[in-house]
Amino acid sequence: MTNEYFQDFDKMKKRIHDHIFSQIKHDFEDCFDVIDEESHLSKIEQLTQNVLSNLQNWLNDDIPEKYKKIIFRNIENGKWIELIEAFKQELVFGTSGIRGKLMISMDEKNSEKDLLSLDENGFDSDILRGSKSINEITITKNIYGLINYMKKNNMSKIVIGFDSRALSKSFSRLVTNLFLKNNFHVILFDMPNTLPELSFTVTNFNADMGIEITASHNDKRYNGYKLITKSGSPPPVNLRDELIHDIFDGSQPISYLLHETLQPNILKNNPEKLMMIKTSNFSNELVCSVDELHEKYLAQLINLLSNKETIQKYSSDIRIGYSALHGTGYDLTSRLFEKLNINNIKNISKMISPDHFFPLFSVKQILDPSDGNTANVVVDAFNEQFSFGEFEKLDFLCYTDPDSDRLGIIVPTLND
Question: CB neighbours of 242 closer than 8 A, spacing ≥ 6?
Answer without folding.
Answer: 149
